[in-house]
Amino acid sequence: MPEEPVALYGPEYKRDPYPLYERMRAERPVHRVEFPSGVHAWLVTGYDAAHATLNDRRLGKNHALGNESWRALASIMPEPQHSRLQVHLLHQDPPKHTTMRRLVLDSFAPRRIEALRPRFQEIADALVAEFPPGDRIDLVPHFAARFPFLVLAEVIGLPPALAREFRRDWGKVVAPVGPQDPGRADYEALLHGLQAYIAEVVAAKRPSRGGDLLSTLVTAQAEGVLSAEELDSMIFQLLVAGQEPVTNQLTTALVALLRRPARLDRLRAEPALLPQAVEELLRHDSAFELTTWRFLAEDAELHGRRIPAGDSIIVSLCAANRDPRQFANADGLDFGRAPNPHLAFGHGAHFCPGAALARAELQIALGTLLARLPGLRLAVDEAELNWIPAVLGRGVTSLPVTTTR
Q1: Quick one: which of 3, 49, 286, 389 is 20 to 30 A from 248 by CA?
Q2: Residue 42 belongs to a domain with what CATH number?
Q3: Are residues 18 and 331 in contact, defined by beta-carbon separation less than 8 angstroms?
Q4: 137 in helix, strand or coil?
C-alpha cells in the first residue's frame, strides 16, 4: 500500500506543530506529507538530516526541476507559475543564484546594519510614542506589522511616498489559493495590485538612481544582468520576505516570553542578554517553519528514502531546531544556550542574506517593547490567539496585551 501522507495543516497543527514533529523525528528523518488542496511533498525533520539536506548539491530550487505531478498542482502553490514574481533568489540555482545574491549582499552586510541601528531605534521609539492611550494594545497592527517594513524601506531605499502606499495584505499572494477556490478572484486582485506597485517602484527609481539597493537592482536590469521578470521578483522578495517573516518572528518571540513571565521580566532587567535571547527565541519557535521547495534532478536516496526526480522536498526548520539530539532541553527556553547552531535562517548557499538585519530588528524591537511597556502580559487566554494558516510560516494575526505604563 502507498504511504499515507501526514497532514500539515489545520488549527491544531498551526497552534502547536511540535508534538507531531517529535513523533516524526523519532520514526524517521523523511516523511511523505500533505498540504492544503492536496499538495504533497517529502518533509525532512531531524537536525542532522536537515543540515545535510540544506547543503546537498544534488537538490535544486528552480521550479523547472519539478515533475509533472508537481506541476499539476503549481497553480495552487505559493507564487503560482503564471506569476511574474516567482523567479527570485529562492527559486534559483547557481550560477544565476550566485549573480543575483551578490547584488543584495552589501546592503545587508553586518557592518552596514550596525551603522543603521540608531535609525532603527528612532523608528521603534516613534512607533511606541504613537501607541493609543490605555493599558491594552494589540502589538501586531501597532508595532510588529509596521516596524519591520519601516526599517526595510530605509535599508533598501524605498521612497517614503511609496512606502506609505504599500499594503501589508499584498503579502498574502504567497498563500495557496486554488483555481476553484472562492477566494481566487480576491487573490488575483492582490497579485495584480502588487505587480502594479512594483512597476511604480521601478519607474520611480529608473530616472534617478542612487546608491541604494533598489537602484542597484534597476541598474542591473538596465545593463542586462537581470531580466524584467527577475527584477520584479527580487523586489517582490524584498518587500514580502523582508518584512512578513520578521513580523511573525516578533509575534512568536513575544508569545514565548509572555508564556514565561519570569523570563520576560529577567530580559527586561538584563538587556545585555538580548543578543543571546534572540538567538534562543529564533531556535525555539522560528517564523520560517518550513523551507521552500527543493527538487532532485533524478531518482535518488535521501536519508534512507527513495525520492522520485522532480518531487518536492521541504525541510522543517522548526523540527530541526527542537531536535534533542542536537539541543539539550530542546523544548525549553535557555537564554544561556551556547553554542546555539540553530537553522532559523537556513544554511548553505540559500542562507538568508537578511539575517543580520533580522537579528538587529528583533533585538531592538524586543528591547524597546520590554523597556517601554512595564507589566507586559497577555490580555486574552492563550487559546484565543489566532495562528496564521500559512503553509511555510508561523506567527499570530493579533497579540493583545496589557501593560501598566
Answers
A1: 49
A2: 1.10.630.10
A3: yes
A4: strand
